[in-house]
Design goal:
The chain is α+β, with helices and mostly antiparallel strands and about 70 residues long. The chain has one helix spanning about 45-55; strands at about 1-5, 15-20, 20-25, 30, 35-40.
């Protein structure tokens, strides 16, 4: 996953990061291979639009990410 991070002890708010491999999903909380846990917020509207246009999974508040 890539996106802007907020409230992270190692990054300033708004910094763009790419996580390590996702190993667990629980609602809008994800755990990565490095052990970091992230709370997913609203996806970028342009990303949602692109997903719809390309026929990809469209993230929702209930299921913001889906492993394939």
């Amino acid at each position: 996953i890539a996106g802007q991070v907020y409230g992270h002890k190692k990054h300033i708010d708004g910094h763009r990061i790419t996580t390590s491999k996702i190993i667990e999903i629980n609602g809008n909380m994800i755990k990565t291979n490095s052990g970091s846990i992230y709370k997913l917020e609203e996806p970028d509207p342009q990303y949602v639009e692109w997903c719809e246009k390309e026929g990809h999974y469209v993230p929702t508040n209930i299921e913001p990410i889906k492993l394939l």
